[in-house]
Each structure stands twice: as C-alpha cells, then as structure tokens.
Amino acid sequence: MNTPVRTTVPDRSMDIHKASGASMRDTFAETVREAIHEDPRVALVLAVISGDKFREPAARHPERVIDVGIREQALVGVAGGLALTGMRPIVHSYAPFLVERPFEQLKISLSHQGVGAILVGIGGSYDASFAGRTHQAPGDVALVDTLPGWAVHVPGHPDEVRELLRREIPRERPVYLRLSSEANRAPVPVSERLTVVRQGSGRSAGVVVAVGPMLDPTLEATAGLDVTVAYASTVRPFDREGLNHLTAAAGSADVLFVEPYLEGTSAHEVSAALSDRRHRQLGLGVTRDAELRAYGDPEEHARAHGLDAEGIAKAARDFFLV
Amino acid sequence: MSMTTAAAFSRYADLPSLVGLMEGDEKHFEAAHSTLDVIWTLYDRILRVSPETADASDRDRFLLSKGHGPAAYYAVLAAKGFLDVPTLRGWGTYDSPLGFHPDRTLAPGVEIGSGSLGHGLPLALGSALGLRAQGIRRDDGTEPRVVVLVGDGELQEGSNHEAIAAAARLGADNLTAVVVDNHSATPPWTGGVGTRFEVEGWKVRSARGRHHDALHRALTEPHPGRPLAVVVTVPSQS
C-alpha cells in the first residue's frame, strides 16, 4: 500500500463531529429518526453532539428529543429517569463523554435502578486521532464490562448498526452500541453468536476472533494461515459456547482475539470459554503500556497499535508459531 | 395481624417508635432526623400514591436522593402501609429489603436506589420528562408530579447543577426539589442554597422544617411553567 502524500493538515475535515463515525453514525441517526416516529416509547437524549441530525424529529416530537446541553451526568441521569417511567431512552455522545465521564451514572442511575437504555457512542478508540487523547476512549468496553447485564455491540458495518438498533429498541436491557468510522467492506448478518467467516481445517493452527471493524484487516492478515476466523459484532454477552466448539474443532486450542479497543478486554471471556482445556490465547487491541501521544489519522494509530493488517499478520505468525 | 399493626403504627406520633425499631436509641431523634417532617407531610397530605397505587403509571413519585440515614423514610413508608412494621427490625441485615441506603428493587414503595450523592435530581428530571412525554394524566385530568429530596451538603455534587440548569430550560414544572438545609455544606452556600435554583429559573420557596402547614403550602401552591424548589431549613446537626 502506498503511503499518501501528507499535508500538514489532515485531509479529512478538522470538524471532529463530522469526521468521526460518519457512515455508521448516519445510519444510526436515520434509524433513530424512524424509531422516534414509529414508537412512542422511544426518547432520544443528547448532550449537543449530533443535535443537527435530529432537528426534524425534535420539531415534531419535542418531548421525546431531549438535549440537556453539555451536561453528560444529566444526560445519563435523565435517561435513567425516563426509563423509570417506562420509556426506552437512546443516549448518544462521543464515547469518552458517554461512558467514561459519567461512568457512575451508568452504574447507579441505570444499572442499580434496574433499568436500561441504549447508549450509542461514536469516536471509538481513535477515530478522532487528530483530536488527541481527550476524544478517544479505548477503555470504554472494558469499563462497561464491569457492569452486570449489559449488552455490548461493536458493529463492523452500517447495515449491522441498523439491525442491532431495531433488535434492541423493543427490549429493556442496558446496551452499549459502539460505532466507529472504520468499517468492513461488507456486512455480516447480525447474530449474538460467533459467525464463522473462514473455516480452518481439522489440523488448523487455531481460532482467530475478529470484533467489528477488525474483520477486514484480520482476514487480510491471516489469508495465508490455516486458522478459523470467527466474527463478533456482539461481544457481551460473549458466545463462550461457540468459541469452545470452534476451538474443539481446530487443530490447536490457540485463540487470537482481535479487538478495536483496549487489548485483552475479552481475555477473561476466552479464559472462561476454554476453562475445560489447556489453551493459549493472545489479545490484540489498543496497547495498554503507554498513552500514544500522537495526532495524525486513524490509519497511523492502527499501525502504531499493531492493528493494521501488517501488524496483525506479524502477531498471528508469532502466536501460531508458523 | 398486618391490619392491626398498620393501624397501631400509622400516626405521626408513632414515627419515633418506628425509627426506634431500627435505631433503638431515641434520645437523638430530633437532631438525627432532619428529613422526617417533610417526608411525613408529603406522604400524609400531598403525594397521591398509596400501597395500592405504588406501581400505577399515574402515581406521584417521591425520590429520596439523600439516601444516607433513611430511617425516617422507612418509618414513614411503614406508617403509610408500604412496608410491614416488623420488617423495620431487621434493617441492614443480609436478608432485609431495607439497607442503610435504600434499594428500589428490594424495598416496596422506594422509587430509587440512592446513597451515592447527586443521582436523584437528574433521575427526577428524567422521570418528570418521561411522564410528560407519555402524556400521563390521572382520571381527574391532573398531572402526576415528581418530588425529589436532596440535602444542602449533597448539592455540592456537580451532577445536581447539571439537572438544575436543564430542568427549567426544559420547562419541567411537574418537578419539585425539596432541599433539606441543615447547613452541612462546607463552606455554606453563598447567598443561600435557594439562589442556585432561582438563577436557573426555578420558583423557590422556603419553609421551616417542623411546620407542617407551612411545608404543605410551600409544596402545593401553583408554580406554572417553572420547576419548584422548596428549601426546608432545619437545625444544624453540629
């Protein structure tokens, strides 16, 4: 791949609100606009971010499109109150301001009250690479993972965003839907089970699990290896049974887990899934050892964390001992 | 049995005995229960909610945000029949639905789990907006209200101020905040705690903590178009 000539200013818009998660974000907005019209239980709660995408439903249903201003504790707290009266709140902001800043509100104003909401985060790990650390949340899934009963979806394609929302809106449970600007070329049918994308032989080196937008680079990286590649757009609850079966059918009980957020976030799930057998595992993701103090574009950040096809390929060769 | 018990412990004068079932020692009763009179007045004279309507969508809702020291709250819920009186005895024990901070999923009549300060006001605002968004009205056409009790010390948590600012802008006049002011904010609120609500467009009233008629008036006189804050002053705990 040729390295494009770089100007001093990134060629994408410097408006971080436009640059991040554009496609998945547009599908989210379109799906929620429809849901607001169709379902009187749906209430959208915003903290300014993406408000421009909901002007029309806000005018038609001002009581169900609620912008609390730049107040993220109130954002989640208000959602908890709406849910207490029987509504289905959809709560949206940048991941760091949706999950990290008001984390105790997720724990107390939603979970502890025994109510749910659909939290839709944009920005992912480093979609806003040029905006710096303040707009990045690689630890979001690990944080939500400390709360019992949450579903965590990491779609890899805008079509999956639409389907996941349509499934979750009629339900009650707490949900974190993690959008990103990176997407795979094609959608995978939405399932809470692992989906086998490439089947390895009975003598294969093991199983690779790719989460959301990690699928395309993972497929490219493992093209020359005899491994089973499975895809997950739902990471919590995790399909332990599916991983156990795939691993049992592989030549080795070795699992490489490729996640677009903090490395090792799902290590405990792999460990629990394979507690009945000797196994090896390696987690790839956003590195934990140091804060990456660099701007640039998401591709450069992927490379720095070893999450581009080249980095994944090298890790896979080392891990599978080929 | 339960009917007899409820009848025997259903009066204001019974509240010290009910609190005594939990705390034993009654000698610090006055000082320790700054919230008792306003919670009693709410359940006795204002809120349209009963054990029979505790799950009705059109009930009034009382959210105890200041979840610390809930004995007075539990005592009122027992006096009003939401809780069985004998349940009070085991509070804080493993199998009791009544903890030192309330849990709505365990205790009948409890609207929110609280303890960590600063969650009640945003939850109350969301509840008020949710009732309004669904157009919930009682058979007589009146709109249910949401009342949240916060402490002046609790108001130091920033989450309250996010909700205070958002509430008036969103026109939530079905929301009432009762601020029990026992001067525990450190240092005290400059200009009085009510100014924090007033500047954001709330209707603010004050009442002395033990005066039931004054509390009743402050909590029931109309405040169209604006959320209501009632600052209830009680003696300092120190």
Using brief descriptors, characterize the structure shown.
heterodimer; A: 322 residues; alpha/beta; Rossmann fold; 2 domains; 7-stranded mixed sheet; 5-stranded mixed sheet; 35% helix; disordered N terminus; B: 238 residues; 5-stranded parallel sheet
Give a written overview of the molecule:
The complex is a heterodimer of chains A (322) and B (238). With 322 residues, chain A is α/β, with parallel strands linked by helices. Chain A has 2 domains: 16-178, 3-Layer(aba) Sandwich (Rossmann fold); 195-319, 3-Layer(aba) Sandwich (Rossmann fold), CATH 3.40.50. Chain A is 35% helix and 19% strand. The radius of gyration of chain A is 20 Å and the shape is globular. Mean pLDDT of chain A is 94; it is low at 1-22. By secondary structure, chain B is an alpha/beta fold. Chain B has one domain (34-68, 100-233): Rossmann fold (3-Layer(aba) Sandwich). Chain B contains 9 helices and 5 strands, in the order ααααβααβαβαβαβ. Chain B has a 5-stranded parallel β-sheet with strand order 1-2-3-5-4, with helices on both faces. The model of chain B has no long low-confidence stretch (mean pLDDT 93). The A-B interface holds A 40, 43, 63-64, 66, 68-69, 71-74, 76-87, 89, 104-105, 108-109, 112-114 and B 57, 103-105, 111-113, 116, 118-119, 121-134, 136, 158-159, 162-163, 165-166, 169-170.
